[in-house]
Amino acid sequence: MRLTTFTDYSLRVLMYVAARPDVTTTIAEIAAAFAISESHLSKVVHDLGRKGLLINARGRGGGIALGRPAASINIGAVIRAAEADALVECFDARTNHCVITPACRLRSVLGEALGALYATLDRYTLEDIVQDRQRLRRLLAPRRAAAN
């Protein structure tokens, strides 16, 4: 399974903000830290705000902050909310046109594997994955141009 870019960026944004809990940040700062598109991040930040995971304040003095404590943000729940569980066509009865579905066991095998993946992810919170905040902040700090 490969996470979508949207899910990847959602996790990165949450980690960035959680690594700096005492400071509000901006989409531009996060985009620069990860060298990714601000327009993509805008969609991600909006979605995370809609879900209550971020507080998004617009305008002068605005910024992005966690919407609740990092210890209460479950990684499995974040990924479930961002990803479709349809690993293969037969996972979605509305769009399944696979002719072998009645005899195929792949759906149950993949469903079991997906369940195991989420069982693992459900054991972790955002707090668990940002414990080394100091190192994360250093790694995500703006890069200074080397002096000539």
Report on the architecture of this protein.
The chain is mainly alpha-helical and 148 residues long. The chain has a domain at 5-84 and 125-140: Orthogonal Bundle (Arc Repressor Mutant, subunit A), CATH 1.10.10. Helices cover 49% and strands 5% of the residues. It has helices at residues 5-19, 27-34, 38-50, 75-82, 106-121, 126-129, 133-140, and strands at residues 54-57, 63-66. A two-stranded antiparallel sheet has the order 1-2. A hairpin with a 5-residue loop joins strand 1 and strand 2 (63-66). Helix 1 (5-19) crosses helix 3 (38-50), helix 2 packs across helix 3 (38-50) and helix 4 crosses helix 5 (106-121). The longest helix has 16 residues, at 106-121. It is elongated, with a radius of gyration of 19 Å.
The mean pLDDT is: 89
Count of individual beta strands = 2
What is the helix/strand order?
A: HHHEEHHHH
**CATH architecture classification of the domain at 5-84 and 125-140:** Orthogonal Bundle
CATH class category of the domain at 5-84 and 125-140: Mainly Alpha
Poorly predicted runs are none
For the biggest sheet, the summary is:
2 strands, antiparallel
Summarize it.
This protein is mainly alpha-helical and 148 residues long.
List the keywords.
49% helix; mainly alpha; Arc Repressor Mutant, subunit A; 148 residues; two-stranded antiparallel ribbon; 7 helices; elongated
